[in-house]
Amino acid sequence: MRVGFFVTCLVDTMRPSVGFAAIELLEAGGAEVVVPPAQTCCGQPAYNSGDRADAIALAAKVIAEFEGCDFLVAPSGSCSGMIRTHYGDLFSADPPMLQRARALMEKTRELTDFLVNELKLARVPGRFDGTITYHDSCAGLREMGIKAQPRALLAMVPGLALRELPGCEVCCGFGGTFSIKFGEISSRMADNKCQDIAGTGADAVVLGDLGCMLNIEGRLRRRGDMKTRVLHVAEVLAGRKPKS
Questions:
Q1: What torsion do the CA atoms of 232, 237, 240, 244 make, to the nearest 10 degrees?
Q2: d(CA 103, CA 76)
Q3: Could you give the CA distance from residue 105 to residue 102 in angstroms, rounded to a whole number?
Q4: CA 10 from chain center: how many Å?
Q5: What DSSP designation does 83 have?
Q6: Rounded CA gap, 233 and 112, in Å?
Q7: What pTM does this model have?
Q8: Which of 31, 158, 216, 234 has a CB 3.0–4.6 Å from the CB of 21, allowing a cystine?
C-alpha cells in the first residue's frame, strides 16, 4: 500500500516530531510511506480568506503530487478536511480537474482514522506513564468524523489513563483566521478551554491538529501553567517527545 504523507505547514515549521511520529506509525502498520519533497500548503488559509486563485493553484499542486498514491494521509483533521471536503468546490467550474480532485478526495484520510480503519493497527510503539485528556479539534470532528479513532488508539498505550475533558467538542478559539479577526473572543474561548483542561488534573492534553495545539499551549503558558504538556496524538502513540 503506497501512502502519500501530507506533512502540513505547521508540522513542518513548528513541530516536525509530529511528522516523524506519524510516519513511524504508518510504517508500523505496513504502509510504504511516500513524502513528496516539494509539497507545501493544502490551500486552506487562502480558501478561508476568499483568495480562490491561490487556493486553486495550491490545490492543483497537491493533486499532482499525491494522485499517484493509494491514499493521502495527514496528521491533521483541518488539512485533510480541506482536501476531502472543499476541493470539489474549488474545481466546480473545471470538469477535468474536478474529476482528478474527486479521485484524491475519496482517498484522503486523517491519520488516526487511517490507522484504525485502513491499517487496522493492533498495537502502538509508544508508552505514556500518566493521565491525559483529549480535545476534539473542530475540523477533524465535524468534517472528518474523528472521535472514537484516537481514543481507540490511545487505549493501546501502556501506562496511559484518559480523563475525558468537559466540553471536549467545544472550539478552543483558534479557527485559523478567526483567532486573528476576533482576537478577544478567541482569547476568551481559549481561556475557557484551559480552565476545563486544568479541571481534569491531567498531565497532558492531547489532540490531533497543530493549530489547536499551538493555541492551547500558548494560552496555558500565558496563564502561568508551565506543567501541563500539550501533545499531538501521534507523538503519544509513537512515544516521541517533542524537542524543546
A1: 20
A2: 20
A3: 5
A4: 10
A5: I
A6: 8
A7: 0.95
A8: 234
Phi, psi of 34 (to 5 degrees): -115, 130
- What percentage of the chain exceeds 90 in pLDDT? 94
For the CA atoms of 149, 150, 152, 155, what is the dihedral angle to 10 degrees? 180
What count of residues does the chain have? Answer: 244
Say how many CA atoms lie within 13 Å of 237 toward its Cβ: 33
> For position 243, what pLDDT does the model report?
65
Which stretch of DSSP H or E encloses residue 37? none
> Which CATH number among 3.40.1000, 3.30.565, 3.30.1380, 3.40.50 corresponds to the domain 130-238?
3.40.50
pLDDT value at 149 more than 80: yes
Residues 66 and 83: beta-carbon distance below 8 Å: no
**DSSP tag of 65:** H
How far is Cα 153 from Cα 75, in angstroms, rounded to an integer?
14
Contacts of residues 166-171 at CB distance under 8 Å and 24 or more positions apart, as own/partner, are 166/196, 166/199, 166/200, 167/192, 167/193, 167/196, 168/133, 168/134, 168/135, 168/136, 169/136, 169/141, 171/138
Domain boundaries, the chain: 2-117, 130-238
Residue 244 reports pLDDT greater than 70: no
Residue type, 231: L
Q: Are 5 and 69 in contact (CB under 8 A)?
A: no
Who contacts 182 (Cβ-Cβ below 8 Å, separation ≥6)? Answer: none
Question: In the numeric block, which cell numbers belong to residue 132?
Answer: 491525559
Cα separations (Å) of 169 from 63, 66, 116, 139, 173?
A: 31, 31, 21, 10, 12
Mean pLDDT computed over every residue of the chain: 96
